[in-house]
Amino acid sequence: MNRRLRILAVDDDENILTIYRGVLCPPENSSVSFDVVTCRQAEEAIEAAKKAVEENNPFAVAFIDIRMHPGQTGIYAAKHIRALGSDINILITTTHSDVSPQEIARQVPPVDKLFFAQKPLQNQEILQFALALGAKWQSEKQLRQFQMELKTVIKKPTLSLEIINEELLAEIEGHKKVEEKLIIAYQTNQNILEKAPFGVYVVNSEGYIDYVNPAMSIIAGDEFEQFNKSNVFDLQTYRELGLSQKMKAGLKGEYFKMEAVEYTSYFGHKTTIRNFTGIPLQEKGERKILMIIEDITKTKKLEEALKAKTIGLEETNTALRVLLKERERDKAEFEAKVLNNVRE
After folding, report:
1. Is a pLDDT exceeding 70 seen at residue 222?
2. Nearest to 290 by CA among 209, 223, 218
3. CATH assignment of 198-322, given 3.30.1360.70, 3.30.450.20, 3.20.20.140, 3.40.50.1370?
């Protein structure tokens, strides 16, 4: 049974915590529901996060108010929660703050997992942040798991995408056993690639594509037959990006990575933002390159939307500081007038 994504909500106002629970933990017949833990103080939140990590059931997202009386601040809580694990997405909520978002980001890195929103949050905003940041956390978790599996696949000498070295051959008696082991290895490897949540394809030394997994066809919007007939060295889109040259270098043994590349597929004409990773390998003595394609379009759009919110918050903070200075000046002038009247 799949676990519900866990949300940590931290605010010293019990009414706000009630809103979080109502929005994120609706009745059982709702299609969207989270496992929500609420805390009123920073120290309590840190303990909850620590327990979650120890139980191997971490939080995906934390909503943290920046000011919580009478205890420590939300920045203190965020800093210690981040120290427990770098994967959690932290959303700082505040009405106003005398600490800039840049300073908070310096204390609570990395910046791609730290977000800001101005209170009061509307119910739909709470739900949208939970869904979007939860999906981001889940996608990143799947990527880490897949990379670990893929690393194991490439390193295992029993898999078809690895040179069968002399040591392995010496351990196998007879040609029949070699063939049986290759068949099992290929099936194991293919099952992993077929189920991968990210695009995967294999390019041979002549530039033709030997293998494409289902996720890659979905990302590109291309049919398998179109992939199978493609020579990546001849694709104009690959040449314009410099991807063809990197893949040729990959066939000579060079690992490469291209991040956040806007790309329009040659056949499907589908535009996405992608991370390209090229891993050199050999199969039956032939040099090939294994390509991993991560579609980060939704993540980038979310980051842009959250960046816009952050800019809005900074502008609000600036306006509040100006207003505060004006009030302090007015107060000083008023006190001076009162003092003069008293003296007169």
Report:
1. no
2. 209
3. 3.30.450.20
